[in-house]
Design a protein that fits this description.
The protein contains one helix and four strands, in the order ββββα. With 60 residues, the protein is an alpha+beta fold. The chain has one domain. β3 and β4 form a beta hairpin. It is globular, with a radius of gyration of 12 Å. It starts with a strand and ends with a helix. The relative contact order is 0.19.
């Protein structure tokens, strides 16, 4: 994960908010972490599962 390119949610406020970051460029996986605690651990899900999750959120 050291070489991962992390990006913060576009919904994060100027104080860092209570959002997540995801890493791009990891083949077939999406690493996710707390933007306030980047050293606090990472959850890794399959790209397919992440796509379903995002699609479900957009449907809300």
């Amino acid at each position: 994960m050291n070489a991962a390119r992390w990006r913060t949610s576009s919904y994060t406020n100027s104080d860092g908010g209570t959002c997540v970051e995801v890493a791009d460029g990891v083949a077939k996986l999406v690493p996710v972490r707390d933007s306030k605690r980047p050293d606090g651990g990472t959850v890794v899900v399959s790209a397919a599962a992440w796509g379903l999750f995002v699609a479900a959120l957009k449907g809300c």
